[in-house]
Amino acid sequence: MSHWFEYFPGNHMWSQGMMFGIEMQTWGAAALGEIDQVGQKLKAHVGDNERWWQEWTAMAQRVEGFADAAERDGHRLTAGSYYLRAAIYYFCGERFIAPSDRKWDTYRSCLRCFGKGIARRYPAIERVEVPFEGTTLPAWFYKADVVGAAPAVVMFDGLDNAKEMSVLFGGAEITRRGIHVLAIDGPGQGEALRLQGIPSRHDYEVPARAALDYLAGRGEVDATRVAVMGFSMGGYYAPRAAAMEPRFAACVAWGGHFDYHEAWVRRRKILESGGSKVSAPSFQLPWVLGMPDMAACMKKLEN
Residue 201 gets which letter from DSSP? Predict the structure, then answer.
């Protein structure tokens, strides 16, 4: 008997997708009633990823409309709450849609609403670009309310998340403890993957080093006290970065993956045996790694 909550019993992927939204309510970026309205409409269509996109984006558009109306009426804080919720709903909606212009457009809607939402509700969050190999990696810098140079953390996402969530569920809590946060989309993540086409790589100390160099150039950061953190797949990225870049003073693996190849050997066995306890759709890993198929992915993961 499972003791995990599953909104859609028997469908782990969709249930975890619902949890993406549900958990964000703590930081004012979701409303349980709105999420349940989406879920009730989806219960007769479990597994239909097209319907998933339709219902989530319909709710996002509705809530964004409320935000625009509140803004016109001069209710800036109320509008900010609506914009944040719309942003997360757009992101939830694009989660299971294969790489396409529609996926990128849905994510752009997420970015549009998120930028408006944080400007009104989280003004300490700043959009920044981290120089990286002739281009930049997009990030949100969340400044803690402290005096003088303070410690900071570089926060990487997982296989199927983005900085728009992590800067809130991680960043809002970490900054309350007097630590600045750089929530960044590294190679194969969030905006860097979706809008810049940068795939993942095994040597994650390279983007992590770029993030550390960026933070070291900010006067409010104590460059001798910078940690690296990652969750889910980032539980591989962060330990790798800390092992290879000695300037990192600490490391948090929020769900450690010390051999990501081995993790996917296990997951492939689950899928091939008819199991469903995998959180990402079949296109996700090849897309993230920039590989044509799973065989090529497994070869790349050997590194």
Answer: -
- Number of CB atoms found within 10 A of residue 46's CB: 15
Is residue 280 a contact partner of residue 253, using CB atoms and an 8 Å limit? no
CA atoms 9, 10, 11, 13: torsion sign: positive
Q: Which domains does the chain have, with CATH numbers?
A: 1-123 (1.20.1440), 124-258 (3.40.50.1820)
Contact call for residues 192 and 137 (beta carbons, < 8 A): yes
Rounded to two decimals, the pTM is 0.95
The answer for residues whose C-beta is within 8 angstroms of residue 216's C-beta and 6 or more apart is: 223, 226
200/286 Cα distance (integer angstroms): 10
Split at pLDDT 50, 70, 90, the class of 134 is very high
What DSSP string describes 152-176? EEEEE--TT--HHHHHHHTHHHHHT
Q: What are the tokens at 58?
A: 């319909």
Q: Tell me the pairing of strands 250-254 and 221-231.
A: parallel
Task: Note every long-range contact of 62-70, with CB atoms under 8 Å and residues 24 or more positions apart, other chains counting.
Answer: 63/34, 63/89, 64/109, 64/113, 67/113, 67/116, 67/117
Q: Is the pLDDT of residue 287 over 60?
A: yes
The neighbour count for residue 175, using CB atoms within 10 Å, is 23
What residues does 8 pair with on adjacent strands?
none
- What's the rounded mean pLDDT across residues 79-92? 98
Cα angle 33, 91, 164; round to 5 = 100
Biggest CA pair distance of the chain: 56
Residue with tokens 């989530």: 56
- What is the C-alpha to C-alpha distance for residues 43 and 47, in angstroms, rounded to an integer? 9
Does pLDDT of 142 surpass 90?
yes
Read off the tokens for 259.
Answer: 């051999």
The string of DSSP codes covering 229-260 is EEETTHHHHHHHHHHH-TT--EEEEES--S-H
